[in-house]
Specification:
The protein contains 6 helices and 3 strands. The chain is mainly α and about 170 residues long.
Length: about 170
C-alpha cells in the first residue's frame, strides 16, 4: 500500500491512542514502519480489524492518561504555589523577627497614643502659660516663652514618633 504516511505521533493522534501503543503495534509486527512513518491505509485497516471493545479501551486509556496528566499538572502547580506562599510567609516572619516589619496594629496604636499626647500637651499649654503671659508685657518675651514651650512639646512628640513600631517596654 502506498498512500499517505504518518509518524508514530500523527498516527496516535489520528486514532486517539498513545504513541507508545503505536510503537507496540510496530514492534509486534502488526503495523509496518518505513522511514519512521506508517502507511495510513494500512493503519486504518489494522484499526478496523481490531475488536471494537479493544479499540474503545485504547481510546479510553489515552483519554484517561490525558486527564491524569492534566490533574498531575494542576496538582503540581498548586503544590508549587503553596510552597511559594509558605516561603513568602517564612520570609515575612523572619523580617518581623529581625525588626524590619512590625504589626500594623501596634504602629496604629502607638501613633494614636502619640497624637493623643500631642493633643493633650497642646491643650494644656494655655493653662500652663496663661499666668506667666498675663504678667508679661514684652511681646518678644511672650514669643520666646511660647516658642520654648512649643519646642518642648514638639521634641516630645518627635521622640514618640521615632519610637513607632518598637515594642513598648
Amino acid at each position: 500500500m502506498t498512500g499517505q504516511r504518518l509518524t508514530r505521533k500523527e498516527a496516535a493522534e489520528h486514532f486517539g491512542v498513545s504513541a507508545t501503543r503505536v510503537g507496540e503495534l510496530i514492534r509486534d509486527g502488526r503495523l509496518a514502519e518505513a522511514g519512521a512513518t506508517v502507511d495510513l491505509e494500512e493503519a486504518e485497516a489494522l484499526w478496523a480489524s481490531m475488536d471494537p471493545d479493544y479499540r474503545s479501551r485504547m481510546v479510553s486509556q489515552k483519554a484517561a492518561k490525558v486527564v491524569s496528566d492534566k490533574i498531575n499538572e494542576t496538582f503540581n502547580r498548586a503544590k508549587t504555589a503553596k510552597m511559594v506562599a509558605q516561603a513568602q510567609e517564612a520570609d515575612l516572619e523572619l523580617k518581623i523577627k529581625q525588626g524590619l516589619f512590625v504589626p500594623k496594629q501596634m504602629v496604629t496604636q502607638q501613633a494614636y497614643t502619640a497624637a493623643k499626647q500631642f493633643h493633650t500637651r497642646l491643650t494644656m499649654l494655655p493653662r500652663q502659660l496663661a499666668p506667666q503671659l498675663a504678667i508679661e508685657s514684652s511681646p518678644a518675651e511672650i514669643e520666646q516663652m511660647l516658642t520654648s514651650a512649643i519646642d518642648v512639646i514638639v521634641a516630645e512628640i518627635r521622640n514618640a514618633l521615632a519610637e513607632l513600631g518598637t515594642p513598648a517596654g
